[in-house]
Structure formats: C-alpha cells, structure tokens
Design goal:
homodimer; 332 residues; alpha/beta; Hypothetical Protein Tm841, Chain: A,domain 3; 2 domains; six-stranded mixed sheet; 14 strands; glycerone kinase activity (chains A, B); Dihydroxyacetone_Kinase (chains A, B)
C-alpha cells in the first residue's frame, strides 16, 4: 500500500490537523472529531449538520462554511461517526431555530444520526429534523444500505439547502426543500480500479485490467454489473441512461455534476463531462449549471459518477447564492 | 491502461470539448487548441498568455479568467504547444499594451514561446515579454530542461501577476513583478507511483512497491534519488528541507502550496499539509496563506509537491485580490 500517511490508525487525526492548519475559517474539535465554522451563524437561524465516514473528501468537512454546513462529523475511513459526535455537534450549532441532519443513506449513518437526534431533543431540547439522501439509481439494496445509497446528490443538496438556511428559512421549510431536492436528483457511478482502505492495506475488491464496475458505491460496494472496459462515450452512456430511465427530466433545466472518485485526473473528468453533456443534450435535457471535479470521493479509486438534478428557478437561485467553503466557493 | 478516454490520440481534443461545455466564461479555439476568456479584458491592459503540454490540469486552461490568464495554449499530453498556437493566442489577446508570456522552464516550451514572441512582434507589432519560471530545487538539469524545471510556483505567479495586470500595470512592471515572484519561490515534489501517458499506454517509469522518487518532475522525470517509502512526516521533511536549504525564508510571511499530482486523494493532501506546515513552523517560517489541492498535476501520478513563496505585503495583497477561474475562485 502506497499512501501519504503516517500510520493507518492515525489517518483521520492527522488529516484533521492539516484541515485546521489550512483553513482559518474552520474550527476543529480534535477529540470529538467535528469540523465547525470558526464563526457560528446568527441566533435564530437553522443549522445544518452532516457527516459520515472519512475518505470522501472534500465531503463533508470541505463543505462547512457560509452557505453550506455548520458542522461535519468525521468518522474513521468508511465508518459512520458515532451518535456522541453527532449529538455534540447538534447541540453546539443549534441557534435556537432547530438543526437539520443531512444523512447519506447507509444503515450505520442513519441509525446513529437517529439516535443523536433523539438524545439532542431529550437532553437539550433541540428541534432536530432529518433528510436521508438516496439518489443512487445503481442498485436497490447494497452492502451497507437498505434501499438506495446516498451519493453525489448530497453535495448539491448541502449547497442548495445551505443557501436557504442562510436566508433564515424555518426548519420545516428546509425539510420540504430537502425532500424536493432528493426527489428531483439521481446519480450513477463507475470504477476503473478499487480503492484501498488504509486499515485494510490492500484493494477492497479485485477488478481485472480489462473490466470496470458500473454502478459502484462510494465505498467500493458492488454495482449493477462488471463489464468489459469501454471508451469514454460508452461509459457515459452506461451512467446517463440508467439515470434517465429512472426519472423523466423532460426539458426542464438541470444541474449536472461530473464527479471524480479521487484517483482520476481532471483531464479525464473534463473529457467525461463533454461526453455526458452531449448525451444529455441528445435526450433533450437542458443543462443550466454544472460542476466538474472531485467532490465526493472514494479514497484513491479511479472512476467517476454523474448526478443530474432537475432544478426550477428556486433551486437555481439557491445554487447561485454565495458560498464560502474549502470545497465550493463563489460569489460573495 | 485504464483511463476515461475515447482514444489516446483524441484525449486533448475531447477534453477541450468538455472544458468548453463546462465553462460558459471560456471560449475554446478547437482547431488552434487555445483556451480564451469569453469576454476579453479592456483595451490598454497587458494580457497574459501561458501554456504547455496537457496532463497538468487545472494548469493552464483552468487558470484562464478574470484575475489570471487571458489565454492558455494546450499542447498534446506532456508535449509543448507549437509556436503557431502561441503566436495566434498572443495576437488575439493583445489589447495594445503588450503581452506577457509565462513559460515553465522546459526546453521545448522556452524555444517555442521565443519563436512565437518574435513572430508576433514582427508580424503584428505586439510588444511581448517573457518570464521563464524555474522554481524546482530538485535537480539542476533534467530530462527536458537546461537549468531548473518550472513547476508549482507557476500557479502562484499566474495568480499574483494576473491580479497586477487587472490593475492596469505596465508590461515592464509585470516583468519585474514576475522576476520577483520567481526569485522568491521554490518547489520540490515526490512520487509514490508513475503516471501513464495515454499514447504510451504504460507507466512512464517503474517504481517498486517499497520505494518512492524524491524530486520527481511533473512529467515523471527522474528526481534526486529513489529511496525507501517513508511515513508522511519523513516525506514532508524530504520536501521541505531542500527548499529551506536553497533559500533562506527567515521569518517573512509566505504563501505555501501543497499540491497533489493527480492520483492522490484529498485526505492525504490535507494530512501532508499538516506535516509540511508543522515543519515550516518549527523552522520559524510564517505561513500567511495556503493552498491545498490539485493545481499542477501529472496525469494520474500519486504524489505531491510543496511550493513556498516569500510574500511581502504587495504579493499578499495581489494574492488576495479577486479571481474567477475554473481552478481558483474567490473574492469578487
């Protein structure tokens, strides 16, 4: 295993030191493993908390800041954070208007956030609501999930709902908005290679030189099928078509993300975006906004995913609103 | 070779299609292989042109836009663009105040930009000046270079000099500023793995599982030495110490970039940044600003580089000035 680390068991603690050193506008609770905004938002505003296993950076810590999250709980690599972490973060960021938990649909995350919400309500009277993101059209149930997995749409949801929270909208309003986003977005991913979890020391799965995994999960969970390696155009078709088969986007405006899995260079991500955009346009889908790069990764996995979100004027205007985080930054 | 491409010979053309599809504020000349701002800057303002082999994205095309470059010439992967491309770009962006060529020190790039400058001066009376960036302390001469290679400092120079150009400074003034930045900055890189050039179809060099290349070039050129794999702390020492041995930074403020080579996940880059920052601080170096991520890459190479730039108030204020490009964006 070749990695820029000190020791497999120290990866998360050491990475948190680097995040703190790099970003003066973040505050890191090293013992509790939570990343906060250095300057909390105003009293009376709903706060957003997310989190999950590490190894998906910039998700979630890179999306803490003005216009997105208030706190991100970091679990060990590909391991859910604990209810304790989530409860502490929830109590810490509550500004009296309630807290929204943004949870990717993995059984451990869902259970632990549920427990944290109950504890925060009971012990500190925090009003907590939850959105479980489940946008991955690849498989119905999966290795760590009942129902669809939560993947790339989480990035778009954190941006859009984060912008709405800054406007002072109510918790109920943000829940409704989150459900709208979750209902209107779909994703599909693929892998050319496995990732290697530091604690395991070897690739999560074997993938022969002439094959790829279509529909792979962000922890290397099996996808729909393993098929012969294809060119970028045919890979793009295998990602876009299941998305379009699952939801009729009509000719509505959409936000499209072409996301890298961590080990794929940007030149390939742009090349793939060109293919994806052309296929979507051929199907009459209108791309109003896009995002190309590494936003929800799987350690060093080579591969990519496509997310398509149908976005009306409300969603587009929230998307365009200013954001200031390590991972997304524009407009203020 | 596992890559998200259609064919090795189509990589650049296809990637340019994706860049155009993704960024409405860029204009791509597909035949000429030049990336321009969609909206040219004002008449009477000096324009900045850079370029080089592809495979280093976001450099240089990702740095075209307000506050940085006016045009980027894209060569084939790891191959210099031609004088024709550079001459066309130079004539196209000239707004009557001259054009600065920003060139990384590789023999092909230097020769071709020189020829382009002469042609543009002769045929179109464009006043062209050149800065050759040569910040890599690893080796004196290298596979494609006489003298030191130009690497990570190019990113910082394009940002700083780009900001100064927006202020309306003269060409001579920008040349002096470029020389100042080039004199005050140093870089050093390392690789855990080779990159694979699409046209070659196999890794550029072999690197055993228990070894790493210290001082590697951004095309996989040999570095200072091949040594046993070490932990992140000791890798950081092997990058920072040659930089500090080459230039005495004293306790002046610096801008530090921890750059990923393309195949290294962000969690490892943050971890490395934490180690680099701690070592610099131990040596009394003050970090005033930083950048962590993939900015000048080597296709899918796993590894990283460190750049340290001594930055007085002038350089820091130009660094902080607004920038709106695909690869760097803040503040407006």
């Amino acid at each position: 295993m070749k990695k820029l680390i000190n020791a497999p068991e120290a990866v998360l603690a050491d990475a948190l030191k680097g995040i703190e050193a790099a970003h003066a506008d973040l505050r890191v609770d090293h013992a509790g493993r939570v990343i906060y905004r250095a300057t909390p938002k105003d009293q009376g505003t709903v706060a957003l908390v997310s989190g999950g296993g590490s190894g998906h950076e910039p998700l979630h810590g890179g999306f803490v800041g003005f216009g997105m999250l208030d706190a991100a709980c970091a679990g060990e690599v590909f391991t859910s954070p604990t209810p304790d972490q989530m409860q502490a973060a929830t109590k810490e960021v509550d500004r009296g208007a309630g807290v929204l938990h943004i949870v990717k649909n993995y059984t451990g995350d869902v259970m632990n956030f549920e427990m944290a919400a109950e504890l925060a309500a009971m012990e500190a009277s925090v009003d907590v609501k939850t959105i479980v993101v489940n946008d991955d059209v690849a498989v119905q149930d999966s290795l760590y999930t009942a129902g669809r997995r939560g993947v790339g749409l989480t990035v778009l949801l954190e941006k859009i709902v984060g912008a709405a929270a800054e406007q002072g909208r109510s918790l109920d309003d943000l829940v409704a908005l989150s459900e709208k986003v979750n209902g209107e977005g779909r994703s599909m991913g693929m892998a050319l290679t496995s990732c290697t979890v530091p604690a395991a020391g070897k690739p999560t799965f074997d993938l022969p030189d002439d094959q790829m995994e279509i529909g792979v999960g962000i922890h290397g969970e099996p996808g729909r099928h393993r098929v012969p390696l294809a060119d970028a155009h045919h890979i793009a078709e295998q990602l876009v078509e299941p998305i379009l088969a699952d939801l009729d986007f009509g000719s509505s405006p959409t936000i499209v993300m072409l996301n890298g899995m961590g080990g794929t260079p940007l030149i390939e991500l742009y090349l793939m975006y060109g293919e994806v955009a052309a296929i979507l346009q051929k199907h009459g889908v209108t791309i109003a906004r896009n995002l190309v790069g590494n936003y929800i990764t799987s350690l060093d996995m080579a591969g990519c995913s496509v997310t398509v979100l149908r976005a009306d004027d409300e969603l587009l205007s929230l998307w365009d609103a200013p954001v200031e985080t390590a991972g997304l930054r524009w407009g203020r």
